[in-house]
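Revision sheet: structure tokens.
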Amino acid sequence: MNSTHKIVIVGGGAGGLELATKLGRELGAKKRAQIILVDGSPTHIWKPLLHEVATGALNTGEDEVNYFGHAYRNGYQFEFGWMQGVDRERKMIRLAGVKDAQGELLTGEREIAYDTLVLALGAIANDFGTPGAQQNCMFLNTPNDAEKLRRRILDLSFAVGASGNGASKLTIGIVGGGATGVELAAEIDHTIREMHNYGANLSPAQLEITIIEGAPRILSGAPESLSQYATEALAQRGIMVACNSRVAAVTETGFQLGNGQHLDAMIRVWAAGVKAADWLSTLGLATNRNNQIEVTTCLQTQTDPAVFAIGDCAAAPNGEGGPQLAATAQVAHQQASWLAETLIKKLNGREITPFVFKPQGMMVSLGKHTAVGSLAAVVGPKRDYYVEGRGAKLIYASLYRLHQAAVHGWVLAVLLWIGDKLRRVGRPTLKLH
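Predicted:
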């Protein structure tokens, strides 16, 4: 094996970080290859939990992973900066200059050489060109987005509660009835109830949340029985669901629907659909209409076999000629695990086999103590069987612990879990500042 072989991974999301960790431990720490992780943020937070960051249920200061420290402990190197281009002939990626919080340039553009390049850049919200969406909606793509939404919820909760008018409402509209939209709605409802218990003037009766979904039902990718249970659980909390509703435009006061109705909303969140960043289509690699990089069943780009793509930024087929895999955390996790083993085989001159996705079901949180999900990993993907309530919530919570185990190892993951339990004894369940 060439000990100077450089594997550069761009993107420190769930897939990119897990891949860098596995390769760092197996190759980097043993000086068998150089592993470099590139990201424009210095820290990582698990994206499926951004709805908890947005409501203060998850404190990023305690749960985020610092790339510099993690790289030091796990045998890889971290490069801070945003990728802005690639020269595939020279096998170099270009990073943009880094600026401080005041906009002062800290370092100019620079290049990083690679022998194998893995793009794990995730995705952003797809507003489908809806007029006013970018200007009048909040999004949930990054921890910064989640923090802005959290501050907005706190500010308006105080304003409505302090008005002294019990008839005034805090109205929230969420576009998208997928897992993100449903989980966010349930978590906001739980947050307002907890804040009221802490003494906030805003009562749960003053909260109005509406989920706007264009399909006939929410969680359209899940079994119908699961979707029905989630709909009923949301209704019990007073959360309204408007299915078969298309958003024609977003205004400063709410949503203009396709049927001419205007839905008032003080807080407007767009959580419908994802796409890859527009600049990915400028790299000279084959992409689809959502800017996702088209890859083979071995996750190699169709344009360049030295470049791989995984996670939400990749348009990966489910088997030869199969449909495109969904942009979910479980797909990214399985691709990262498979690619780590495959790259080790490839460097050892061994034959690689195509990636095979194994459906693990779907879990959706419906608040602090309940969730709903299918158990495809246990009973098989063809059976319509789901769990609900506290048992489902326990399974849902375990998914994050599995991610922590992949990133930190089981010993540290258990210690982090114990630490979380101990911290909850001495602090509020929500971040209220």
